[in-house]
Amino acid sequence: MRRKILLNMYNIKTSEEPNLPPIPSIGDVLTRKKNFIEYKYTVLKCSSCNNKVERNFIEGDYIFKKLEGKPCEKCSNTQFIIIEIYSTYKKEKNDKI
Ligand SMILES: [Zn+2]
């Protein structure tokens, strides 16, 4: 079990690489990076009904990690699997536009 977890960690899609998810104003992000903060989020999938849920990335998250305890909004199942982890940049101020 422990070995499997280590293998799965290599699948994390974080953004040390230039292949970030599409961002509308990537040019602005690169030239004015001071005003942006890195924002990671995790996509969970309900293991029962496949409902997808996003939440903030939490340290220790990795692809295929199983989570428990947070009831699914659609079927009340409490088991989820992390299927995607994204990283993007968010404007530090004025992000309520
Ligand atoms: Zn569900």
Ligands: zinc ion
Distance between the termini: 45 Å
Which structural class matches the secondary elements?
Answer: alpha+beta
Mean pLDDT: 77
Low-confidence stretches: none
Strand content: 25-35%
Q: What is the count of distinct domains?
A: 1
The value of Rg in angstroms is 16 Å
**Helix proportion range:** 10-25%
Total number of beta strands: 4
Order of helices and strands: HHEEEE
Q: Mind describing the biggest β-sheet?
A: 4 strands, antiparallel
Label the overall shape. elongated
Number of helix segments?
2
Identify the strand order in the major beta sheet.
2-1-4-3
Summarize the model shown:
By secondary structure, the protein is an alpha+beta fold. The protein is built from two helices and four strands; from the N terminus they run ααββββ. It has one domain (2-91).
